[in-house]
Design a protein that fits this description.
This is Endonuclease MutS2. Endonuclease that is involved in the suppression of homologous recombination and thus may have a key role in the control of bacterial genetic diversity. Homodimer. Binds to stalled ribosomes, contacting rRNA. By secondary structure, this protein is α/β, with parallel strands linked by helices. It folds into six domains: about 160 residues, MutS, DNA mismatch repair protein, Chain A, domain 3, CATH 1.10.1420; about 100 residues, MutS, DNA mismatch repair protein, Chain A, domain 3, CATH 1.10.1420; about 200 residues, Rossmann fold (3-Layer(aba) Sandwich); about 80 residues; about 60 residues, Roll (SH3 type barrels); about 80 residues, Ribosomal Protein S8, Chain: A, domain 1, CATH 3.30.1370. Helices cover about 50% and strands about 15% of the residues. A six-stranded mixed sheet has the order 10-11-12-8-13-14, sandwiched between helices. The two termini are about 70 Å apart. The relative contact order is 0.06.
Length: about 775
Amino acid sequence: MQERVLKVLEFTKVREQLLEHAASSLGSEKIKNLVPSSDYHEVVKLQEETDEAATVLRIKGNVPLLGIYDIRPHIKRSVIGGVLSSQELVQMASTIYVSRQMKRFLEEVDDERTEIPILREQADQIIPLTNLEQAIKQAIDESGEVLDGASVLLQSLRHQLRSNEARIREKLESMIRSSNAQKMLSDAIITIRNDRYVIPVKQEYRGHYGGIIHDQSSSGQTLFIEPQVIVQLNNELQDIRVKEQLEIERILTELSAQVAEHAEELKVIVDVLANLDFIFAKARYGKKMKATKPSMNNDGRVVLYKARHPLIPMDQVVANDIILGTNYTTIVITGPNTGGKTVSLKTLGLCQLMAQAGLQVPAQDGSELAVFGAIYADIGDEQSIEQSLSTFSSHMVNIVDILNRVDSNSLVLFDELGAGTDPQEGAALAISILDEVHKRGARVVATTHYPELKAYGYNREGVLNASVEFDVETLSPTYKLLLGVPGRSNAFEISKRLGLNEKVIQAARSHVSEDTNQIDKMIASLEESRRQAELEHQEARDLLKQAEKLHKDLQKQMIEFYAKKDAMLEKAAEKAEEIVEEAKKEAEQVIRDLRKMRIEKNAEIKEHELIEAKRRLDEAAPEIPKSEKPAKKKTKKHRFQPGDEVKVLTFNQNGSLVEKVSEGEWQVQIGILKMKVKEKDLEYIGTPKQEETKPLAIVKGRDADVKLELDLRGERYEDALLKVEKYIDDALLANYPRVSIIHGKGTGALRQGVQEYLRNHRSVKNIRFGDANEGGTGVTIVEFK
C-alpha cells in the first residue's frame, strides 16, 4: 500500500494507538513497520492469530509478557567475544524467563481445549534455556549486583573487604572520639576520597595526623587527610578491591561465553517473543475498541454492520452499515456539504486497511471484508503551494495516477470528485472518471455535491446512490449513511428555520422546476421508509441472536441433563448393588448360624431346607439394570450419510442425520430440535428403507422429499394456508404418523388460521401445541388417524 494512502486514511494514527498496547520495544518495532498485506492467505492467517490472542485474553484476562528486552545486541557482542555487563545479563535472564512463562502459559491454554494452533506453534519454537537463566540469576541479582555466592573466591574476597573496612573504621572512630579531636577536626565524621577512608582536619592541624592529603574544602580551611596509621590498611583494601574486580570480570566473561553458546536459541526466543507481543497488542487494541474479527474474501465483497470510525470516541461516533461488491460495485454518496460523507468514506477505507493488516475492525459480528491488491484514495484539500497547484489541479494529479494503476482488484475512494472547478464541467468529469474506473471492475465509493450525479446512480447498472442524513430540526448532519437514497437539498428548510422571510422562500421555490420539487419529496419519503426498514431489520437481527442463544443454551442444558441422568442412574445402581450384597452377606451369616444351632442343639432343620431358604434369598435380590453403554464393535467404521438413523450418545436419544456441517461434525434432527453433534458421539443404527409407494406416477418418490416439519415463519396468511394444505397431503402420502408445523408466536393470526384448518381436516386425529423442548406455542404438533 502507498504510504500516502496510509496517511490520508489515517492508518498511521491507528498504528500510534496500537503502540500503546505493546509490552516491549520488540513489539513496538513490529507495530511501527506494520503495513496492510494484499496476499489473501497471509491476511487470513493474520486475522486468525489475532482472534486466537483475543480468545486467550477473554479466557485468561492477561498474558505474562512483562520483562522482555531487546537482547539482540547483547547476543551479537557475546558471539564476537565481548563481555556483557551485569545489567545486560540480567536483561538476558529476564527475557529467557518470560519465554519459559509464555511457553508454559500457552501450552496450558491449549490443553484446556481452547484451540490456538498458531500461538501454540509459536510457543513450540521456544527452547527453554533454564540452565543459562539459573546460572545468571545465581551470580547476579535483579539490580545488576554480582552476588557473593557467584564463586568461592569472590565470597572470600568480599569477606576480607568487610573485615578490612571494619578495622579501618574502628581506628578512625577512635581518632574522632579522642579528646583533641573536637579541636582539630572540622567535623567528627569519617568520609571517603579517591576510594580511601579519610577524616576532615582543620588547616592548622594538618601535621598532627601525618599521612596523605586527598582533598580540601572550597574555603581551604578543611583538609581531607588519610592518617598515617591507616595508610597500609587502605592499601590492603585497595588490593582486595582490585582482586574482587578481576574475579567479577572473570564471572561475567564466563556467563557471556555461555550466552554465545546459545546464540541461535536466543535469537529464536527474541523473534517468537516479538511476534507474541505484536499479536497480543493487536488483540488488546481490538478489545479496547470492542472490535470483531471480520471474515475475509477474495471476491471484492464488503459487508460492514454498524461500522465505526476507530479514531472517533465511541460515545460520539455514529455506526453505519456499509455494503459494497454484492449487487453493485460503485456507491455514489450525494448531497450538500453538510458533513458526514468524508467520515463514511474514511470509515470504509480505514476498516479495510486494518483488516488487511490483521487487526480486528470496529463493527458488529458477521461483518465481511475483501482483500484488495491496492487501495487508492483522493481525499481532503490537496492544494500544493510548493508546486503552485490549485486544489483542482492537485486532485487531478492524484486521479491521473489512480487511473494509471487501478484494476479489478482495487478499492478506490474519491472525495468530492470533480470539485474545485466549474460545476457543469466538474460534474461531467466526475461522471467520466467514475465510468472509467467502474468499467475496469474496481470497487468504488465517491462523494459529490453535484446534483447531476444523482441520475448517474439510476442510469448505470451496478451503481448505487447513497446520502448522509441531515436533521433539519437541529440544522446538523446525523452522520447516518443511507444506502439507496440519494442526497437532497435542504437549503429552503434550513433558510426557513433560520428565519428567512416566507415570501422570499416561496419566490425561490418558483425558480425551481416542478420535477426537482417532486424528486426532493420522493427522496424525503425514501429517507423515512429507509429509517423504518433499518429499525425493523435491527429488531429482526436482535431476535435472531436471541433465538440462537436460546438454542445453544437449550443444547447445553440437554447435555447437562442427560449427563446428570446417567450419573444418577449409575450411582443409584451402585448403591442398590451395595445394599443387595450386604443383604446377601447377612443372609449367609444367618444360614451359618442356623447350621451351627442344628449341630449344637440337634434342631430339626434339614440341609435341603437351608439350601432352599438360601435360594429364595438369592432370588429375592432384584436384578440391577446396568447403564447402557455402547459396546465397541470390531467392525468396519460406517461412513455416515444424510438420512442415516443414529443414536446421539451424549443425549442417549435417537435421531436422523440432516447434513454434514464440517469435518467430523453433523447436524442431527432429534424430534423437532436440530443440533450440531461431533461424529465421534454418534452411533449408526441403520438407513431407513423407502416404503414402496402405490403405483401412481404423481406421487412416486415424493415421500423422499417430505420433511417432518413445515416452517411458515415470514409467510403471508393466504400463502401459508396453501402451503399447509399441500404439506398435509404430502405427509399423508408419506405415511407419517405425526408432523410439526412451525408458525411462530407473533400476533397469533397465523396460528389460529392453521389450527382452524387442521381441526376441520378429515385425516387429522389430534392437534396440540409443542412441549417446551419442541418449540412451545410457536409449534403445532399434528397427529394423523
